[in-house]
Model the fold of this input.
Amino acid sequence: MRIITPLFIIALALLLPATAFADANERLAGGEIIVVTSDVDGYDVPKVTVYGVIDVAPERVWDAVSNCDGYVGLMPRIKKAREVSRSGSTIRCDVTVGLPFPMNDLRALSTAEHNEGPPEWKREWTMVEGDYQVNTGSWRLRKFQGDDNRTLAIYSVHAVPNNRVPERIRNRAQERSMPGIIEALREHLE
Done:
């Protein structure tokens, strides 16, 4: 697993656009999980985007990522999760992320919009209240290279806790926990 900076991606895209994108697809096809961080104006904490291929149909992955009641035991570090309400494509979820001692766990009540594919399945959320300055993100799913039984999963999140999380712990979370989300889905679904 590699963490790729946006500057590296931009430079690669400008120098060798076809090769860079072909290389990323080849790496994804081979099972690599790619993590990209990008700066967000006004925040010290970057947005993190994780790309990975899961060898099942997008509909099956959607069933897992669109059901917050099933996050405990599936998603890394999720200590509690429950769907609070649902009205059409709008879902409210209350999710608690467990942090290592001595830090306090982080809770967020979020509103998510679901757009169920094909060709793309998308879940976008924004925090309504909780232990963060900001907590927004999305899941985007689509067939990988046109294969009905392979899903390109893109998980993106910008979460800034109210309490300061030490940089080394935040970096460790980016290196281990973020790819772990794709790995957990693979284990659960493949």
Summary: The helical segments are 6-15, 17-29, 58-65, 167-189. The two ends are 20 Å apart (CA to CA). Residues 1-17 have pLDDT under 50 and may be disordered.
